[in-house]
Amino acid sequence: MADKQIELKGRVFITFDIRAASGLHIGGSDAGIEIGGVDKTVIRDPLTNRPYIPGSSLRGKMRSLLEKYNGLSQNQRIGQGYIHTCKNSTDYAQCDVCQVFGVPGEHDFGTPTRLIVRDVQMTGATAEALEKSGRTDLPYTEAKTEVSIDRVTSAANPRQMERVPAGSVFGPAELVYSVYEGAGCDPQQDVARLRTVVEGLQLLEDDYLGGLGSRGSGKVTLQQIKLTVRSRRKYLDAPAEVADYADLKAMVSGLDDALAAVRHLLEAEG
User: Fold this and answer.
1) H or E element that contains 58
2) Which of 21, 142, 246, 263 qualifies as a FRET site for 92, CA 20 to 30 Å off?
3) Residue 149 forms beta bridges with which residues?
4) Is the distance from CB of 87 to CB of 72 less than 8 angstroms?
5) How many folded domains does the chain comprise?
6) Is the pTM of this model over 0.85?
7) Contact of 147 with 26, CB cutoff 8 Å
8) Taking a C-beta distance cutoff of 8 angstroms, is the pair 58, 117 a contact?
9) Which structural domain range is residue 201 located in?
């Protein structure tokens, strides 16, 4: 097989804050939880003890929602469930989701994954507000009591779930989107597929992040969105600013103009 030559044209950076509109539960390890404590804990930064949003949770939720939105076959077993992955080069060339999020390494037709999603830390302002409030059940979190009912005996089984309180803000989140040229890569298509990333963010806002979503947890809103670009030839310069948006609705409204600006920057400077 001939060697592939792929060149980085540039990177697009999308940063934003994530505000929990309802209590947020992204599970951590329950090891060591005492009897009578919470049944499901949230994941925490081991250095600060503050809850955070893993990039894998944000990225995985976006991909899962996009797969269903596009009606893609769930054909790859992962753990107890299934996800979508293209099985041949023909399908892959037409699949925006696999182009953006990647395919398993054993598939030799794959090109580099376009999207990187960073972990998202709780903002200092939110942490300070929660520390001063004196109203949290655990550091930075609440314990939400739920009751499951045995449908045979009608016995109640109360349990406590740890959640980050509504109103908490995490950020800045950072999505790093790479644009490539070369074997199997078209920079024009890569820029166009940024629309898929924004669709994933809109689907996320309309759904939920983390666990317990069907019971009210995990509604989030995206705020203070910023779009910047680093082109290949000016990679060591400060990123070029493309647009700032107060919220996702504003970003969606201005997306065509933003994509045109990104395309222009990469063509003119890359």
Assistant:
1) helix 55-69
2) 263
3) 156
4) no
5) 1
6) yes
7) no
8) yes
9) 6-269
